[in-house]
UniProtKB/TrEMBL annotation:
SUPFAM superfamilies reported for this sequence: S-adenosyl-L-methionine-dependent methyltransferases (SSF53335)
Protein name: Ubiquinone/menaquinone biosynthesis C-methylase UbiE
Key words of the record: Methyltransferase, Transferase, Ubiquinone
Gene source species: Pseudoxanthobacter soli DSM 19599
Molecular function as annotated in GO: S-adenosylmethionine-dependent methyltransferase activity
GO-annotated biological processes: methylation
Methyltransferase type domain span: 69-164
Top-rank taxon, per record: Bacteria
């Protein structure tokens, strides 16, 4: 997981109404505080858990190549997953997490990492069409306004580029869904949110006709994480 947050009431009001049980979106201060606590042990505890999803997202981004923005770069666990042909810019809300990432970048082992910055994903400080690909690994379920963050991802990616997401998504029915709802109510203070429906991402896509869903894949071995790719279609010339 990585962090990124904040948004106003207007953004919360535009959240699509989804017919599924779900807890409220996480708040900025909760996420920032939680990941300050996670920073010292994040690589050891969380790194192995998210390995398959992290690599799948980086591989998808690598196929696009060029300038890649990683939202929620965290401690820089994904740095080895990108090759030297890419140019990585990483942002995160958590300064303690970023400090770990800066230490990794400072070793010189990852020349593909060009910039790291503390930044709120709801308000990216980049011009339109700045990147060939935007990657958000284990982020979109944790921000205060997922739709606002997705809007920003769509804004800063160039036409023809891609937005790549990887996350655990809500099971929606059955025992797994009940367990996720129970777990969610008890782990918010840890900056975790195990139940988030794909329907919410699909509803956002309906508001952005230039964004085409090109992949939705449950990742092996157990299908716990889902890889989602959107391509930004070029604007047709008149």
């Amino acid at each position: 997981m990585k962090s990124a947050a904040t948004s106003g009431t207007a953004d919360r009001d535009r959240t699509p109404s989804i017919a599924v049980h779900s807890t409220a979106d996480l708040e900025h201060h909760m996420v920032e505080k939680a990941y300050a606590r996670w920073a010292p042990v994040y690589d050891a505890i969380i790194g192995p858990v998210f390995l398959a999803g992290r690599r799948a997202a980086a591989q998808a981004a690598g196929r696009v190549g060029g300038r890649i923005l990683e939202i929620g770069v965290g401690t820089g666990l994904s740095f080895p997953d990108y090759d030297a042909s890419t140019e990585i810019t990483g942002i995160d809300l958590s300064e303690p997490m970023l400090e770990k990432a800066r230490q990794k970048a400072g070793t010189g082992r990852f020349p593909q990492v060009k910039a790291l910055a503390q930044m709120d994903a709801h308000d990216l400080a980049f011009p339109d069409s700045s990147f060939d690909c935007v990657v958000a690994q284990f982020v979109i379920t944790l921000v205060q306004s997922p739709e606002r963050v997705l809007d920003e991802c769509a804004r800063v990616v160039r036409p023809g580029g891609e937005v790549v997401l990887v996350n655990h998504l809500y099971s929606e029915t059955g025992v797994a869904a009940a367990v996720e709802r129970w777990f969610a109510r008890r782990t918010r203070h840890l900056g975790l949110r195990p139940e988030f429906p794909f329907a919410r991402i699909a509803a956002w896509r309906e508001t952005r006709p230039e964004m085409t869903l090109v992949e939705r894949t449950a990742l092996k071995p157990f299908g716990v994480y889902t890889l989602i790719r959107f391509r930004k279609e070029p604007v047709a010339s008149v």
